[in-house]
Amino acid sequence: MIGSNDSNTSGLGTLETLTTTLIDSINGYRDAAEHAEGTRFQEIFRRNADERSRVVEELRAEITRLGGNAPDDGSFLGATHQRFLDLKAAITGRDDTAIVNEVERGEDYLKEKFELALKADIDPQARTVIERAYQSVRQGHDQISALKHGLEA
């Protein structure tokens, strides 16, 4: 479980994992904006990438406060997922519906990671930072979910 290996329950490992996952999200949003055909989708994806960048900076500051080294890039799995998204976009010919579906899948994963982190026994100040970040993640998740369901209607 996220946070179970944190020394003295500070939350450092949890924060590092969430930061790495958010960086993957930023990369995914930027890639989605690049491959989306509709300017409306491009704008939403870029705005969400910018918002995630802001949240990453908050998590990095908390990691530094706890004495850790904040991650600068995403995970290997995220990089692999990114390549798949690139391939899928190339094959599907920039199909906005497919891109939105893929982004929503990533949002589901990210939201779940934050929900697990909030169940961990961690430093109260770190928890507050994670809770604020989760509000942003949940808002982005709900926005993309509504966008996906709007396309299905």
UniProtKB/TrEMBL annotation:
> What are the transmembrane regions?
none
InterPro entries in the record: CHP02284, DUF2383, Ferritin-like, UCP029477
Instruction: Say which domain of life the source belongs to.
Output: Bacteria
Where the record annotates domain DUF2383, the positions are 14-119
Do you know which Pfam families this protein is assigned to?
DUF2383 (PF09537)
Protein name as it appears in the record: PA2169 family four-helix-bundle protein
User: Which species expresses this protein natively?
Assistant: Sphingomonas rosea
